[in-house]
Amino acid sequence: MQVTLHEITLAYDRQPALLDHFSCTLPDGKLVALLGPSGSGKSTILNLLAGLLTPQAGQIFFDQTDVTTYDSRQRNIGMVFQDYALYPHLTVRDNIAFPLKMARFKKAARYQRVAELADLVQLTDQLGKFPQELSGGQQQRVAIARALAKHPALLLLDEPLSSLDTALREELRTVIHHIQRQTGVTTLLVTHDQEDALQIADEIMVLAHGRLQQIGTGQALYQSPHNLTVAQFIGRPQINLCAVTNLPATLRTLLPAAQLAQATTLGIRSEAVHVATTPSPLTAALTAQVRLGRDTQSHLHTSYGDFISTAIAPTTATAVPLTIDRQGCLLFDAQGACLWSGGDDLA
Ligand SMILES: Nc1ncnc2c1ncn2[C@@H]1O[C@H](COP(=O)(O)OP(=O)(O)OP(=O)(O)O)[C@@H](O)[C@H]1O
């Protein structure tokens, strides 16, 4: 099912509009991640889709059907929350079967569906346990199975990985990806963690300042961000920025003249900053190197800005000659719009 938010306006109480003529489309059968900083309105969008909030203006369509005035029960949605929200006094089996019981499914049909779902979320051997006997990741799998019990047309996942430690988080990402592929249910995953989004989403929507900044694959957002907000949000370490007015001639010649003339900011991805193997007029002081397991982050100081590089091997040198890859450079105007991205050369 394709989901469309069309020109949605929503303001809480008498506050300025949080969403102002907001539009977006979730493609049929895809897993879309909604990514944005705290307070950007991610949960608000989720609640609008779930029918828990009504917009002041605009429409919500499930395929061709206008569901704007439908309440939650009329929308055929499955929801999963950060804190699992399982019934502690019910077994895993009865938790998963609960929505079916409420909908008066016969016992045999309920248990057959529970068996299918337990297989899908790999909990067949845990059905007789109570939630408190399971790990956080297992509890979240029960919550997902329960949300899928009635074959929802749309699955909404609200920060489902936030309560889990790193290992369980990695594991559940894979599980969510697998489940979504198996069921083909249109899914919206709300997260503030770009790793979640980059690893499992077909497409990522970046929300900031009440607006949809961009929607696209993780690679598209990284290589060709529409603006500075997206460029800064996607990619760790954060993109290096420097003022165009300070750039040395060697760097200028690397960049397209027409866009450079209109640009105020140059962005350089950390992997694009290398030590030159031949003499280079670009030099930098190497102020620190931080080893992060396999990776090394090198902190560089130059006359045109301070940078982080992830492409410099551990060294005892305190000054290094640099080369910068054109592919890792981006130019932005004073409003933050991206004028040119080296990633465009790769397209
Ligand atoms: N019921 C409400 N009444 C008034 N203001 C609200 C209400 N719910 C949310 N807000 C405000 O709307 C803004 C967006 O909130 P929302 O929860 O949608 O953001 P979010 O992106 O999900 O944030 P987080 O990542 O912190 O959960 C915030 O400033 C929040 O304080």
SSE arrangement, N to C: EEEHEEEHHHEHEHEEHHEHHEEEEEEEE
Tally of helical segments? 10
Provide the CATH architecture of the largest domain.
Answer: 3-Layer(aba) Sandwich
Rounded to an integer in angstroms, the radius of gyration calculated over CA atoms is 24 Å
- Report the β-strand fraction as a percent range: 25-35%
Total of domains: 2
Tell me which oligomeric state these chains represent.
single chain
State the fourth-level CATH superfamily of the largest domain.
P-loop containing nucleotide triphosphate hydrolases
CATH class (first level) name of the largest domain = Alpha Beta
Bound molecules: adenosine-5'-triphosphate
Globular, elongated, flat, extended or rod-shaped: what is the shape? elongated
Indicate the mean pLDDT.
93
Order of strands side by side in the largest beta sheet? 6-7-8-3-9-10
Roughly how many Å apart are the termini? 30 Å
CATH topology category name of the largest domain: Rossmann fold
Count of DSSP strands: 19
Main sheet summary: 6 strands, mixed
Assign the structural class, choosing from mainly alpha, mainly beta, alpha/beta, alpha+beta, or little secondary structure: alpha+beta
Uncertain spans, ≥5 residues at pLDDT below 50? none
Approximately how much helix is present in the residues? 25-40%
GO cellular component, one term: ATP-binding cassette (ABC) transporter complex, substrate-binding subunit-containing
GO molecular function: ABC-type ferric iron transporter activity; ATP binding; ATP hydrolysis activity
Keywords: ATP-binding, Cell membrane, Membrane, Nucleotide-binding, Transport
Organism: Levilactobacillus suantsaiihabitans
